[in-house]
Design goal:
Number of strands: 7
Strand content: 5-15%
Oligomer: single chain
Largest sheet: 5 strands, mixed
Distance between the termini: 77 Å
Number of helices: 23
Order of helices and strands: HHEEHHHHHHHHHHHHHHHHHHHEHEHEEE
Strand order of the largest sheet: 4-3-5-7-6
Helix content: 55-70%
């Protein structure tokens, strides 16, 4: 394994190339099925078809969940690659590559190139990081622009380079277009804390703050103003009240949890190298001598605490702190490779145990899901490879930790390629939308009753009329004559009075709802 003396620039280029391969490998193989992916990918399609870059809609109805930045990128991708799963996710991959590059670039600038390489390595091996940057959701865009904004803001404060202030303002403005005000508030808090700690008041309070703030406003305000005006305030109310204040104060969509669950998300999300956390804590005095590592620790702490206090908790919420956690972990990994630090054996055995138990857990979980039972043995077999690599490393050689780091990288790269490229697409190809979409497409008229799986909309070329009562459904049936109804099994009792024929019934994988496809014919 390389160290600071043998590191060459081509090592990072090789890592970035490998990362691109892992992120792009079978990117379009998984159907657009997860709720967030569906609504974001379809919303971008509708904005493109409507030639409207201001008002976001899903199935013809106003969508207030997210600002538009990711929609804009998806529209460009659709025009280049077509309206496919690959296109919906392509720029998420680009954001992932840019996030790793920015992390490397600024870590190199404030520390050294080998430290930057090790920080990039931490991200490139993280399954959660890779998974998120293969989804058609706004988080990849948010993570990249917050990363750029924080690094450039830190550089401005450290070096008094005004251009970095303007870059930070632009980046945080783009982040605000990706996810909303939290993208400005949390990074701003981190930079303020750094100013207080380092007493860089003279650098921070400069007249350049005024034009920098104006730049941020130019990036963000025009669209927010336009959508507010175009929707008579409906989007503004729905987004800022329902999707920001309410998410912070009350658990939304059942996504609550105990206080430390956010910390648990981060600890698991940055495996395998988060297993060295004990060593990082032990060597904290040496590591925190580097100002960038100290700043990175502040960022991680701010995001973890904020989303621990928030009532709604999801694994992706604290992810903007991942690059900064990676530079902290990367500093320790660089010390291991330079033989400055010697980790405890616990880290190795923890990863070995995790890698060997993962296929067992996967087998049990997949076996319990009726739709995926047949895949359980194959999935468990494929996931065993990482554990076998580490197990072989335990017995074949007694070499030192730099060699063990190499084995960890090989094992988890194999795990990520297999998991993201084969296991995940294979499992989610068993979803009810994929299994029944051909039946649905055979009908000219398709309507919905009650709650339905939104994944159908991405694969249909028109909006699906919705009904929530018997009277509304009867009206749609009378006006269309015959066709297909998409609904759920828990709505069937209220449909007994209708002469319907059941065509298919499929349970949503790893969830409770069951989708039902019904055929109807209007009475003469």
């Amino acid at each position: 394994m390389i160290n600071s003396n043998t590191y060459k620039p081509f090592h990072f280029l090789l890592l970035l190339t490998l990362l691109a391969v892992v992120l792009l490998f079978r990117l379009g193989a998984t159907p657009i099925y997860i709720l967030d992916e569906v609504k974001n990918a379809q919303c971008a399609k509708e904005m493109m078809h409507n030639n409207n870059l201001v008002v976001p809609t899903f199935n013809g109805e106003l969508r207030t969940d997210k600002p538009p930045l990711h929609y804009f990128f998806m529209i460009v991708s659709y025009k280049v690659f077509g309206e496919t799963e690959f296109a919906a996710r392509f720029f998420s991959v680009v954001m992932g590559l840019l996030t790793v590059f920015v992390t490397f670039f600024y870590t190199k600038r404030h520390s050294n190139a080998f430290h930057g390489f090790c920080a990039a390595l931490v991200l490139a091996c993280s399954t959660h990081f890779l998974f998120e940057f293969r989804l058609s959701v706004p988080d990849p865009y948010l993570i990249f622009f917050i990363t750029l904004g924080l690094f450039s803001g830190f550089t401005w404060l450290q070096e008094s380079k005004v251009v970095q202030l303007y870059l930070a303002a632009f980046a945080l403005g783009m982040a605000t277009l990706a996810k909303g005000p939290v993208a400005l508030a949390l990074p701003g808090l981190c930079l303020l804390v750094w100013v207080v700690i380092t007493k860089k008041w003279k650098t921070a309070f400069t007249w350049h703050l005024i034009p920098a703030f104006l730049l941020l406003c130019v990036v963000t305000i025009p669209w927010y103003y336009a959508v507010d005006k175009a929707t008579d305030g409906a989007w503004t109310k729905g987004f800022f009240i329902d999707n920001n204040l309410n998410r912070f104060s009350d658990p939304q969509e059942g996504h609550g949890g105990f206080f430390f669950v956010t910390l648990l998300f981060v600890l698991i999300g940055l495996l395998p190298f988060m297993s060295f956390l004990g060593g990082v804590v032990k060597e904290r005095k040496a590591l925190l001598k580097n100002d960038l590592v100290k700043f990175g620790s502040i960022v991680v702490l701010a995001f973890v605490v904020f989303f621990s206090v928030s009532s709604t908790k999801l694994p992706n919420y604290p992810m903007p702190c991942y690059p900064f956690a990676a530079l902290v972990l990367g500093s320790y990994v660089a010390g291991i490779l330079n033989r400055d630090f010697i980790p405890k054996k616990f880290a190795w055995y923890f990863l070995l145990g995790f890698s060997l138990l993962l296929p067992v857990a996967a087998y049990v979980g997949i076996k319990a899901e009726p739709a995926t039972t047949a895949l359980s043995v194959n999935v468990a077999t494929m996931l065993t490879i990482a554990g076998l690599i580490l197990l072989a490393g335990t017995f074949i050689s007694k070499r030192d930790w730099p060699w063990k780091i190499e084995m960890i990288i090989i094992a988890f790269t194999a795990l990520n390629i297999i998991g993201l490229g084969f296991v995940y697409p294979g499992l989610y190809s068993e979803n009810p939308v994929a299994k029944t979409i051909n039946i649905v497409k055979q009908s000219t008229n398709v309507i919905t009753y009650g709650i339905f799986n939104p994944g159908y909309r991405f694969y249909m070329d028109k909006n699906l009329p919705r009904s929530f009562s018997s009277a509304e459904l009867q009206h749609l049936i009378d006006s269309t004559g015959s066709g297909i109804i998409i609904t759920r099994v828990d709505h069937l009792d209220s449909l007994k009075a209708f002469p319907l024929k059941e065509l298919a019934r499929e349970r949503d994988i790893f969830e409770l709802p069951t989708t039902v496809i019904l055929q109807y014919n209007a009475k003469p």
